[in-house]
């Protein structure tokens, strides 16, 4: 926990560090790293690599060297993005009692829905669009009338150790990217770079190395792993196995292969008291063949595979175990051809299949409220999404006129998607009720969820135009993108405009601006859930001997939804002063047509009433071009600050701690907040809304010892949410009150040692400690005594060893 009295000392610490670096001896910069208008600027010192960002387009580039230096923890994609001040995480994302779970965290850009980000691998979109917002039920009861049960917008749970580079776009995103309202994460898998090697690594994490923080009322349950849904994992063993290799095949071609398994075994207690060991694992496989045929033509072909597999128990009532898989497998191809006249044509292609399966030991659930006996499960289900994508792009050579230069890019995307939900057999829930004196009271109710297959397929087309104009000291990007799919039959036109003015012509002072529209994604579960509702039949046996049969309403085919979109205005200032590079950005996001559920005439349906407004301010300061030299060490430090003010009408439940999404029923009635009657969309955003985040990082390389030491200090302001008091005003309006969470400061550290073992081999040892000071805060947002306290993660330790030869 961080009190206000600590703030002056933190400011003094930051000022002192940067003052020292400004006066320290510097080294010569890389002569190839002087053009500040390029996409990325890589500065290499003795094994210290700092990758900057193209500030005009709002892209941050993380190369493999920087990925190794960051605190990657369990090796998930989300762990890398914590250094980006535009990225936010859920307050409920990680807890102190369930570290045995392997599921990666989700994240948000500028307050937008976490399930509205775009994920790409080697230029191809790989989102899971069936039901990406159902992660809260990861270990919970599988759904029968909707496609929940722990899916994710990330079609592939990537191992960051297999990545060559990540591009992260948060503002001024070019027209070549579509299908998001938040941000873009474009992962580039490792490819042959001319060096042959084999790399082997083994990592481990143990519960004995973690500091747990538990509500005293839950201490007995925690120590006995008294949960069926992985809420408490006091005993766990995590292991990771990593293999990667590159091999040249000819003078012009080479192959890359990478494989990893990250696994966790932890103890759980079944509802009947029996203990059981769960296994949660994530597998990755990547293979790629790259060929430079000649000076004009190069190609790459790849295979990618990712799977998360874990155990589960149906519910506290129904004890049937199940196993669940979140799987992605795909083939990719990339061709690049340099045409005469300086033009370049490229084509990216991908064939991907996403799959979420549940395999249960029982499809019949029984409950007797008279005796308390219950048993059974909810059967099997399979959700698949198969997509084929072609993405051509033509970059024309720069045309130089008398006063201006133009570089025109034309591209598009053709994507066919075929999705299915399959229930292979009927699921029966048979429930007996206690005797009731009412004639129409229920004695028994049998609910039948019929077997069947629901399919949705569609074709989406996109075309875009991007013109980069250079006029004197002004750089403009004029872009326009059009998207259409024949499922919802929406035609979406998105203009993209950004400007970069080099104020004095020396690249040291630049003013940035942008105005852009981003259209998001529409999810196939809208249609699947509507049809699933019609596959339900309830049979009620009443006291008077009558039988009532109720059929669910099939609402499929009734969708009339617009595409969610976000309008962005951006202003920025980039300044180089002495050894420092400073970047200040202000981003306004107004999002409309968000999908919500509403009740109308007793029925639940989707509409476009979701809306939010977010104002973000980010500031970054580094001295990447002039590292601090002390003795035989080189240190690069970076300060990042992110401030956010976000409001919206998608409000969460403070008692369950869950945020809102398109499945939660919306409420548009005004509320009384701070003594004023306001619209619900004016309430502070419920989640992914940390109002202030400050981070200070340093990477120190000591080449004489083959040692790298990285440190990361993070300060998160707790922020204020609006909480329903469960009271009404005199005129019947809900009364909301402010609830403020505590501030948190953490220190993460990572040490890597790469000793030379033999002439052609190198060892590897990594020790990483998160939250070194073991500082935690209570994330409970409910005022109900029955809701337990929950804490952020305490201190954890990772150890990894390996060899490269």
UniProtKB/TrEMBL annotation:
Keywords, alphabetical: Cell outer membrane, Membrane, Receptor, Signal, Transmembrane, Transmembrane beta strand, Transport
Protein's UniProt name: TonB-dependent receptor plug domain-containing protein
Family indicated by similarity: Belongs to the TonB-dependent receptor family.
One Pfam family matching this protein: Plug
Domain TonB-dependent receptor plug: from-to ranges: 54-183
Species of the source: Marinobacterium marinum
Subcellular location: Cell outer membrane
GO CC annotation, single: cell outer membrane
Gene3D superfamilies: TonB-dependent receptor, plug domain
Keyword Membrane: yes
Primary subcellular site in the record, as a coarse category: membrane
UniProt membrane topology term: Multi-pass membrane protein
Secretion signal, residue range per the UniProt entry: 1-24
